[in-house]
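User: Can you predict the 3D structure of Proline hydroxylase? Sequence below.
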Amino acid sequence: MKPNPIVSRLDWTRILSELDEFGVAPTGPLLDNETCQALRALYDRDAQFRSRIVMQRHGFGAGEYKYFANPLPEVISGLRHGFYEHLAPFANGWNERMGLARRYPCELDAFLAECHADGQTRPTPLLLKYGAGDYNCLHQDVYGEHLFPVQLVILLSDPQSEFAGGEFVMTEQRPRMQSRAEVVPLGIGHGALFAVNDRPKAGSRGDYRVKMRHGVSRIRSGERFTLGIIFHDAK
Ligand SMILES: O=C(O)CCC(=O)C(=O)O
Ligand SMILES: [Fe+2]
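Assistant: Sure. Here are the predicted structure tokens for Proline hydroxylase:
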């Protein structure tokens, strides 16, 4: 797998410090418009996918998504490998602070081999498609006991011209306290890294754990596509 040059050029110091402080960090631009459009065009090619989920049927919100089948498109696999390598040491730091024994290997293929050995063999990268009125309820993308604590989302539609509303939202649930929300503005081709579920948060008496959830507010008009890159595979 060729390392993705865009990933190594990102401002990792800023991204990791923001991810640590808030549980979510925009990455800036990752994909050009043509690539976004090409990825969107894959949505109707069923051979690329292993399953389709209609969100209303499961109470997940409104809209739909499809999980890619193997082999993943090269651009997705490149981003998944590239991001993983930058995030694995950071994820190990989070687990250490949360008192979790799990440590992640340096390379994605080694981590995926661990997932596969325990039956988490199905690829999790996905394309999501929302029309006017659709939304994605607050949730966590946990697919089994093997869980990588950070994931990536990339907006594939242009909020300036293709849709309105549809903001990416994160909530942070603090123990015995009210939840706090964060909205992450994204441009077309821009990404955000965020916590899948629990993360450590620095407090005046050391770290405590907060529970993070993400979702998408109602699309007011137009059509919004995203690419989700989750690092653990699914059962
Ligand atoms: O459409 C979005 O912005 C969020 C998608 C999502 O839930 C995910 O990538 O896990
Ligand atoms: Fe999600």
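Residues 74-97 form the longest helix (24 residues). The chain has one domain: 5-229.
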